[in-house]
Each structure stands twice: as C-alpha cells, then as structure tokens.
Amino acid sequence: MLTISQAEEQAARLVAAACQAGADAADVVFVQGQSQDISVRLGQLEDVGRSEGAEIGLRLFIGHRSASVSSSDFSKEALDALVERAVAMAREAPEDRWAGLAPKELLMQGTAPEIESDDGKEIAPAVLRELALKAEDAARSVDGITNSEGASASAGRTIFALATSEGFTRGSSSSSYGCSACVIAGQGVNMQRDYDFHATRYFEDLDAAELIGTRAAERTIARLNPTRIDSGQMPIIFDPRVGSGFLSYLIQGISGGAITRKTSFLLDSLGKPVFNEGITIKEDPWRKRGIASRAFDGEGLPTKPNNIIEKGRLNGWLLDSAAARQLGMTPTGHARRGVGGPPSTGTANLYLEAGKVTPEELMSDIKLGIYVTEMIGSGVNMITGDYSRGASGFIIRDGQLAEPVAEITVAGNLKDIFMQMVPANDLRFRRGTEVPTLRVDGLMVAGQ
C-alpha cells in the first residue's frame, strides 16, 4: 500500500492536471484499501478472502458546471484521459450555482487532532482463523444450539487522501478488525437464529472471540418458542442494538440535502425542541480509537465535537458547502465523500447521552410492554415522520422480561417518538452511532 504522503501526492498531482486542462476548480479523493476475512462453519474452514485495491476520483468545475469521474488505473495515460473526459463532461453539464468547493478560509489548518485510528499491525490469517474457530466453538458449546451459520474474523486497512485546488492536501490511515458469530437453536419450523459481533480500530480492543460466541448463543436460545401478543398501545423498550436506528432518522432529517429539497419531517424545527429536555445528542469525531473518528470532513473542513441536540433542542442543520450556500449558512464539517459524485452529509461517533436509571428501573413500572431486540423492514416516511416496522423481542410483564415475541409491528410518528424517549444509563461506545437502552411510551403494537 501507499504511504499517507504518497497518497496525498497522488491526489495533488491530479488536481494540478485538472487545473492545467482548463478546470476553474477541482478536488480529488484517493482511497486504497486491503482486507482479509476468514470464515468457518461447523469447525471447518469455509472461506478465505483477501482483497486489495485503489481508486481515485476527480471532481472538477468549469464555472457553475461540474463533472465527476473515477479510475482504478493510475497510469499517466489513463489519468490524462480521465481529466480530458471530465473537462468535456463538465462543459456539457447543467449549471448549478450552489455547487463548488468549500470556502478556502474554512479549510483545516495546523496540526490535526490525534485520533489513533491505525494501530499499524499486520494480522496473520492463522490468527484470524483461530479467532473465528474460538467464536463458533464457544457458541456451539452452549446447550440448545443445534446448528451454525458460521463465524468470521477480519482485518483491514484503508488509506484516504483529499486534495483541492484551494491548497488543501491531507491524508489519513485507519485499521479495522472484526469478529462475529451466528448460530441456530431449535428444530424445523421452531428454529431461531441470532448473532453477535464486535468491530474495533485497534486489534487489542477486540472482544474475546469466546465472549462473542457465547453472547450469540445466549441470544439465540432466548428467542426459542416465541409467542404472539394482542394488538394495542403500550410502552416499548428498545435494546441499544436497534435503538441507534432512531439517530439515523434524525440525521437524515436534518441533513442539508433534505432541508434544501424540503423533504424532511423536521423542516421547521431549527432551534426548536425536537426531543424532551432530558435528551442530549452529541458527536465526538476526535474520540481516540473511535470507529468513526476523523480529523477533517470530505471537503477539507475541520471536524469538532458538538451537541446536535442539547436538552431536547435542535442546534443546527448538518451542511456540506453546496447546501450551506443554498441556505445562506456556513458549512458544518459534516461532508462525506466517496470517489464518485458530490459530497453527502454524515456524522462521526454520534451518541445519545446516558440517562440516570438502569434498564431494569426503566421498565420496572411497565405492566405490559415489549422489549425490542430486532427490527425488520424500513417502513419510515421521512417526509411525514410516520414510522412502522416489523419487530421481535420479549414481552414485558409486571416490569420483568417474560416470553419471547415475534411477528409484531411497532408504529408511531418519529416526532412523537422523539418527544417520548427516555434513556437508561447503560451507554457503551462500540459503534459509530450509539444509544443506551431507550423507552418510548404510547406506541401502537400490531400483534395477533
């Protein structure tokens, strides 16, 4: 793989070539990645995969017209042709007066924060195979497990570089490691499956494979012999594995693209209460070893920790430069870039602050409710906020988890859900978006 400085040089050279060919402005994204994955099933090696590749993407502007092209061929001839094709495409493209690079004065300057995104390790395939075998063996050793869908372990590294004609050139590297297991309990039509996984930036932070396998098995066993429940309105407790989905709807609703297109259920919510005052939602892109940490965004703007929701109130939209120009505002450092197309928006290490009560205390007064551990489908209308998704989990009776339940639908409106949300105190930082256990009262459950 290239070093970070070599990746930066590759991106900067293509920016210079685009400007020499007649572009008024340009930016280039370079991405190189390598990964290896070992899968086992029933104690036998099932698959060994290794991939390595690099791609470079050029976006250039001629006036208010732009074009994006990409290539995995880095020969001089191929890159010269890439620039020529992009210039020709831009001259024929429709004008977009909002499109363009990030303002020069807002670009990241100085030393980047140390986020510890790469541990520099090279993990041998034999080590990954041993992790996968240990995870599956631990899962299969639990009484009641009857079959396995397998276990896997992976390791990878990515080099990223961004260069713009405004003088910004920066790169970064990140390592990634993962381990997962998925097993089956029961027989015939009564079979159930569940899984567990963990992903980290540093290999030493990865959960023990045996723990991952045991959790997968215990979750699977608990789902056996699900029942049905009568339809009605009741409190719902959302496990952190599924509750984080609510933050994704929030981010979609306050992204610049949704606001400029007027396609968000939160269109008129800027500066207003969106959640109850007990809810604060933060972003920490500088968290060391965070799975989504980054020092700069996809346009070269610096990132920073911030409160997106503070005591229930929405502090601002998430804006790339094009959306910011259209709204007459300032870009917020939330641009995300791939090698093709314009930027989108996204967050880095988003989380909902923990509450003050345990998950057990959160459900202690519920006479009849549902503890949801899995969501199915994507029945969410981002224009109206209407929410309806399939679910499974456990019935709550007299404040205690009872028998498993399946084939139900949970429905409501995201505006009401946000206002009713109450967090427990069990927040853990393991993914790019995290929430503690959440309680929402008054949702409709469609059962039998």
Automatic annotation (TrEMBL):
GO terms for cellular component: cytosol. Pfam families: PmbA_TldD_1st, PmbA_TldD_2nd, PmbA_TldD_3rd. GO terms for biological process: proteolysis. GO terms for molecular function: metallopeptidase activity. Residues 26-90 form the Metalloprotease TldD/E N-terminal domain. Residues 122-224 form the Metalloprotease TldD/E central domain. SUPFAM superfamilies: Putative modulator of DNA gyrase, PmbA/TldD. InterPro entries: Metalloprtase-TldD/E_C (IPR045569), Metalloprtase-TldD/E_cen_dom (IPR045570), Metalloprtase-TldD/E_N (IPR002510), PmbA (IPR047657), TldD/PmbA_N (IPR035068), TldD/PmbA_sf (IPR036059). Residues 231-447 form the Metalloprotease TldD/E C-terminal domain. Gene3D superfamilies: PmbA/TldD superfamily. PANTHER family: METALLOPROTEASE PMBA (PTHR43421). Belongs to the peptidase U62 family. This is Peptidase U62 modulator of DNA gyrase.
